[in-house]
Known about the structure:
It is a single chain. By secondary structure, the chain is of the alpha+beta class. Among the domains are: 535-576, no CATH class; 612-712. The chain has helices at residues 5-38, 44-52, 62-75, 91-107, 110-124, 178-184, 187-194, 269-281, 339-360, 376-382, 410-425, 429-432, 441-454, 456-480, 533-549, 556-561, 568-576, 580-631, 635-702, 705-712, and strands at residues 78-85, 127-134, 142-148, 153-155, 169-176, 236-254, 260-262, 286-302, 305-311, 319-322, 325-327, 330-332, 364-366, 398-400, 485-491, 499-505, 507-508, 514-515, 523-530. The strands form 7 sheets. Strands 4, 5, 6, 7, 8 and 9 form a 6-stranded antiparallel sheet that branches. Strands 3-2-10 form a 3-stranded antiparallel sheet. A two-stranded antiparallel ribbon has the order 1-19. A hairpin with a 5-residue loop joins strand 17 (507-508) and strand 18 (514-515). Helix 18 (580-631) runs antiparallel to helix 19 (635-702).
Amino acid sequence: MPVNYNVAQEQFERYCYYRDNGHLDFVAKANKCDNYFAGQQWDPATLNKLKAQRRPALTINKTLATMATVFGEQLEARADVAFLPMRDGSEETASALNKVFIQIANNNMYQWRESEMAADGFVTSRGFLDVRVAFNDHMQGEVVIRKRNPRNVLIDPEGEEYDPDEWKGVMLSKWLSPIDIALMYNEDDATYLKEKNGSEYMMGYDSIDRPGNFGGLMGDPTGYPDSMVDPAHRRIRVIEYQHKQLRMAWHIVDLRTGDMRALPKEWNERRVEDLIQKMRAQGVELGKTRKLVEQIKWTVTADNVVLFDDWSPYKHFTVVPYFPFFRNGNTIGLVENIISPQDLLNKTSSQELHVINTTANSGWKVKSGAMQNMDAEELEQRGAETGLVVELDDVKNLEKIQPNQVPSGLDRLSFKADEWLKGISGVSDSMRGFDRADVAAKAIQAKQSAGSINLAKPFDNLMRTRHFVARNVLDLVQTYYNETRLIHITSGRDGASPAAEQLIINEPTPEGHIANDLTVGEYEVAVTTVPSRRTWEEGQFFEILKMREAGIPVPDQFVVEYSHLEKKQELLEAMSRTDPEADQLQMQMAQLEIQAKQVEIAAKAADARLKEANAKLAESRANSTLWDMTADEDPAVGQAEQQVLAAQQHADQIGLQHMKMQEELNLKRQQQEHGQRMDKVKLLIDACNKREQQQQQQKAADTTPKAKEASKA
C-alpha cells in the first residue's frame, strides 16, 4: 500500500497553491456566467424581496440568444487538419498520417467534443480537451480525446503563455469513488481509501468525504446512513499533477542531419550502444550523448495515498486549453462582459411592467362605512375589474388613486441596454438573421462580415487550440503507432457520400522496407478552416451548376455526384451502364447548343458593328457637304481641303465595306458549319433510332411461338 505522507503532503500543498491563486476566482466567475447563460440572472435575495412586494422580476435572456449565434459561427467553421512532410518525411507517409488523424477524430467524435470545449470557453472563458493513449479497446493503444470540466483543471498560476508547453505544470482534480480508483489504479488503495472516515490533513474537507466539485455540492451525504461506505459514492478527491522536472537522459543523434531524440530513463549506456550498432548495420550512422533535459513528471495522489508517481510517457501535457481571450495569464470569455447590460435590460423591463401594472390597479381612497354593497377587502380584490359597480352613500366618499406616470426615458434605457449587448458581444442583428426587410442583401452580407471580424480573435485562438491538438496527436501516433495495424477510415467530405477505406500502417515489405512507417520523419501541422459539410456540399453543387450555365461542358455524372439526392449512388451506377455512343451523342448535342448560342451572340455583335459602320458613313457624307459649303468662300483652300477629305472618305468607305463583307462572310461560314454539324447529329440520331427499332423487332421475333419452338429444338 503506497502510503507516502511526504509526497502526498507536498502534492496537497501545491494543489492548495494552485486553487487559492486564481482558480477559485475563476470558478466563481464560471458559475455566474453559466447561470446567466441558463437564464438564472436574478440574485436569490433580490428575487425573494420582489416577490414579497408582489413586483415582477422579468428575465429577458439575450445572453442565450447571443451565445447561440456565436455557437453557430463555430459550427460553420470546422477544422481541416493536414500534415506536411519536413525533414526525412515523405508525401506518402504524410497522406497516411492524414488518414490516421481522420480515423482518430471519427472514433472520438472530435467535432462534437470540440464544440463542447469551445462552448465552455465562450461562456466561462476556459475550455479544455485531454489527449492521451488508452488501452481499453485496443491492445496496442489508441489515441483518446476527451473534454474536461474547466472547473476541475487548475492551470499554472505563473503561466504567461497560451501554449501549455510553456507552463511549469497543470493539475487535474476530480472526485472518484473507490470503484473508480480500483479500476484505474489499484484495488488495495481503493479498499484503504474506502474505509477512511476522514482526511489526515487540516484541509481535509477538500480532500475526502466532500461530494461534488469546485462548482458546488452534488448531494448531501448526511441524509444517507451508508453513503460513507458506499463503494460507488464519489467522495475521494484525486489530484493528478503533471509538472516539469530536470533529469539526465541519453540522447541518440543522427550524424547526417543532427536530429536528436531523448531515450527512456531506464535505458543504460550498454542498451544505447546496442541500438547504435543495429542501426549502423542498416546503414544509419547514429551517435550518443548524455545531457540534462526537462521532462514531465506525473504524480497522482488521493489523500495520503500515492496512486502513481513516475515520469510521463508523453512529450506534452495531456491537457489542451482554449481561451477566447488570453492576456498575460488572464482568461476572458464572451459572457462576463455582457452581464451588466443584461442586468440593466432585466431591471428596466421589470420596472416598465410594474408601472403598467400599477396603472391598472393603483388603489382606492374610501371613507369608512361609505360602501353599501361590499367591504374594503372585497374592493381590494375586485378593484381592478372591468364593469365594477360600487354602491355608496355619497359619490364623493370614493376616489381612485392616480398612478405614477411612466418615467420618461425608461423605455429608451431598455433599448440602450439591448444595443449595448450587441455592441459588447460583437453579435449584430445581421449575424442573427434579424435585419429589417428593407435592407439590401449586399448590406446584410457586409454587416455579417463585419460581425465575423469582431469574433476574429476568439476563432483565431480556436485555430491555435486545434493546432495543439493535432501536434499532440501526431506525437502520440509516431510514438505508439509503431507496429503493423489495420486502420478503418470513413470520410465523406471529398466525395458524394461517406466512403469506407482501409489502410495498413507500418507494414513490412518483401524488400525489407516498411510501408507507411509513421515513426520516421518530421511533419508540420497545417490547420485550415472549412465550412460545415452541408454548407460545403451546397456550395460545390451551385458552383458546378454555374459552370454549366457558363458553357463549360461538365458531364452529367458530376452534377449528380455533387447533388443531395437520397439515392444518387444508384443513379450514378445506372448512368455508368448507359450506351457510350449515346453519351457521346449527348455531349455533342450539348456542345452544339453552346456553339449555337455563340453564333447567335456573334451575329448580334456583327449587326451592331454594321450599324456603327453605317452611322460613321453617314457622318462622313455630312462632313463632305459641310466642306463643300466652306469651299464656296475660299475656292483654292476649299478645293485642296475637299481633295484631302475626298481621299479620306474614299479610304473610310473602302475599310467599312471590307469590314462589312468580312462580318457577313464570317456569319455565313459559322451558319454553314453549324448546319453541317446539325446534319451529322441528325444522322447519328436516326442511326440510333434504327438500331433500337431493330433490337426491339429482334426481341419481338424471339418471343413468338415459332421462335420458342425453334429454340427448344
